Amino acid sequence: MKWFKVGFVLLGLMIGSVANANDTFAPPVKLTPKLEKHFLQVEGKIVNNNRRMLSNVNRVKAGETAFFDKEMMNSLRYLSKEVEKVEKGNYDKVLLDTIRATGKGLIRNAEVLQVWLNHHSNKYNFTQQQYDEIKAKIENMGGYGVYIHNTAIDTWIKYYPND
């Protein structure tokens, strides 16, 4: 339970720092072939990270793992680090689109977890405090997804208006 609380505090701090950022990410860096290759690698890592998060959500639904276990917290931490880099302008069109889709995926995962929590909270005998803590984490996850999804769209409109 101690690590659960520590992870939640860290997630809250990460989300709080991201939520205070501007409405759009910084202008994209000038692309070089080396940077483009790097962005493709980062995109692949983010996609794999997103798959792990979805897998974690499915394991929660199947009752195989707890909400926001160590693996989920690691995935969210990794994602927040990559989003911070994108906020500083380290992206291209493909990576920006991946971040947008990631935000949408976080929103969807949060919705799935919220429905599951509402239907199965009695089955797992959550106390009201446990239920409220889990619900707050789910809402934070969804809010973070909304933030990066909308910011990626705004950034796309601002820096790639003709695409």
What is the strand content? under 5%
Helix content: over 70%
Mean pLDDT: 87
- Poorly predicted runs are none
Question: Tell me about the biggest sheet?
Answer: none
- List the helices and strands in order: HHHHH
Principal-axes geometry comes out as elongated
Distance from first to last alpha carbon: 47 Å
Judged by helices, strands and strand pairing, the structural class is mainly alpha
> How many DSSP-defined strands?
0
**Tally of contiguous helical segments:** 5
Radius of gyration: 17 Å
Please describe what this structure looks like.
By secondary structure, the protein is mainly α. The protein has a domain of 70 residues. Helix 1 runs parallel beside helix 3. The longest helix is centred in the C-terminal third of the chain and has 32 residues.
List keywords for this structure.
5 helices, RxLR effector protein, single chain, 77% helix, signal, 0% strand, mainly alpha
